[in-house]
Amino acid sequence: TEHDVLILNLHGTIMIITTSSSSDFTPAPAGSFLARCCRVVDLGTQKTEFQGETKQQHKVLVVFEILDPDVFREDGKPYTVAKRYSASMHEKAALRRDLESWRGAKFTDADLKHFDLASILGRTCLLSVTHTEKDGRVFANIAALVKAPKGMTGTDPTEPLVHFDLASPDWTVFDGLGERLRAQIMAAPEYLAAKKVKPATEPP
């Protein structure tokens, strides 16, 4: 299996991600678990569709490794759960809402001036996972992030910390991402700009 991840810098830049997918993919179980943020990946501007409306939005992928000693995949590896966010710290944005819930405090204007999304890498939280079904498949979704209770412990983390930023890309990190995730990033205008490639629609 492979896993997808993305991270964003709250100053308007984005960072690195990792991806994974498999036809035999088994979703993480529903419930609340101690987890650690292991990947933050900048996906660049992606096309999204919601209620019949198409938008171009800058996206980031954030991935968590579940550290529950009783919850492992059949191969003995930890489950990972990912969530894609619009790269926005607007007061109504999902990214800001989840980060404030996780830290247990609202961001001040001063906080936002100095906050770097990459700083969440390696940090633990209490992760709430729910299930949804689509086309006969079950998917695990991150429903909530909150501060982990004091003294709560879990298994030792095993997933490497991954960070990719299209504003200052590390192409070695990019090459280590899953094929599907790389393809998504390669379609973003930020990737084309970083590689100095002209969009297909642009005349020579």
Written account of the structure:
The structure is a single chain. The N and C termini lie far apart (40 Å). The model is unreliable at 1-23 (pLDDT under 50). It contains five helices and eight strands. Helix content is 18%, strand content 35%. With 204 residues, the protein is α+β, with helices and mostly antiparallel strands. Strands 3, 4, 5, 6, 7 and 8 form a six-stranded mixed sheet that branches. The chain has a two-stranded antiparallel sheet with strand order 1-2.
Roughly what percent helix?
A: 10-25%
**Alpha-carbon distance between the termini?**
40 Å
Number of strands: 8
Using only CA atoms, what is the Rg? 17 Å
If helices are DSSP runs of H or I spanning 4 or more residues, what is the number of helices? Answer: 5
Regions with little confidence, pLDDT below 50 for 5+ residues: 1-23
Strand content: 25-35%
Q: Would you tell me the overall average pLDDT?
A: 86
The geometry reads as: globular
The largest sheet is: 6 strands, mixed
Order of helices and strands: EEEEEHHEEEHHH
- Give the structural class: alpha+beta
How would you describe this structure in keywords?
5 helices; 204 residues; alpha+beta; six-stranded mixed β-sheet; single chain; 18% helix; 35% strand
How are the SSEs ordered, and which strands pair?
Blueprint: E1 7-9, E2 13-15, E3 31-50, E4 53-66, E5 80-86, H1 94-103, H2 109-114, E6 124-134, E7 137-146, E8 162-164, H3 171-175, H4 179-186, H5 189-195
Put the structure in a nutshell:
Helix content is 18%, strand content 35%. The protein has helices spanning 94-103, 109-114, 171-175, 179-186, 189-195; strands spanning 7-9, 13-15, 31-50, 53-66, 80-86, 124-134, 137-146, 162-164.
